[in-house]
């Protein structure tokens, strides 16, 4: 497959920050650091980093569609490992690290909602957080803070995050050739929609109180 050239429809390199981000993520597929970059982003997003790994996963699947299974697997493993870091932060570093992170994301009410939702739904509450736009990083920190059972937490994380990333990568593998022109033309809108889903996730958790 030929290397993607990061250009706009006019042939000029885009100056839009979101477009530059897309072009930057695509270039990792042609470097030895593609998988490590995806793993680092997936790991960090599960505990403290605000940018979801889906953007990089989609870009890499577009560039190397035959590697979609491997990409999704790396994304899942790193995300679950990052979730364990979030759990550890909530468990032992709440005052020094966890609480400032929650405050940074203005998620105090979300943490309380997580506690109530977990008490009512248990395993399924964590699974929903891992699979949906509900902010997983808040769940990982809150799970450690409230001493949720670790085994169900890990299982729900594997199923939820794996289901999400394998679904995204699989859809790109099956439909990438058809949807790639639209996504590249309207990438700014697509990223905005992804961010809106993340914000909606916070609202959903707060409403579950």
Automatic annotation (TrEMBL):
The keyword ATP-binding does not apply. Residues 51-172 form the VTT domain. The chain crosses the membrane at residues 71-94, 153-175, 187-208. InterPro entries: DedA_domain (IPR051311), VTT_dom (IPR032816). Keywords: Membrane, Transmembrane, Transmembrane helix. One of its GO terms (cellular component) is plasma membrane. The keyword Transmembrane helix applies. This is Cytochrome B. It comes from Desulfomicrobium orale DSM 12838.
């Amino acid at each position: 497959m030929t290397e993607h050239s990061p250009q706009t429809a006019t042939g000029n390199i885009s100056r839009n920050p979101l477009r530059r981000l897309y072009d930057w993520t695509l270039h990792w597929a042609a470097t030895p650091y593609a998988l490590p970059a995806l793993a680092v982003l997936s790991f960090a997003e599960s505990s403290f980093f605000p940018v979801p790994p889906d953007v990089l996963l989609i870009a890499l699947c577009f560039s190397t569609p035959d590697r979609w299974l491997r990409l999704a697997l790396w994304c899942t493993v790193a995300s679950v490992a990052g979730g364990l870091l979030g759990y550890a932060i909530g468990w032992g570093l709440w005052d020094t690290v966890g609480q400032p992170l929650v405050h940074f994301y203005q998620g105090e009410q979300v943490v309380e909602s997580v506690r109530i939702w977990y008490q009512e739904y248990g395993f399924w509450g964590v699974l929903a957080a891992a699979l949906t736009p509900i902010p997983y990083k808040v769940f990982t920190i809150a799970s450690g803070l409230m001493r949720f059972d670790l085994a169900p937490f890990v299982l729900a994380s594997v199923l939820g995050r794996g289901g999400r990333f394998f679904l995204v990568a699989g859809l790109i593998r099956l439909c990438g050739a058809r949807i790639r022109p639209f996504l590249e033309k309207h990438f700014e809108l697509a990223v905005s929609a992804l961010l809106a889903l993340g914000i909606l996730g916070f609202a959903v958790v707060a409403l579950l109180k």
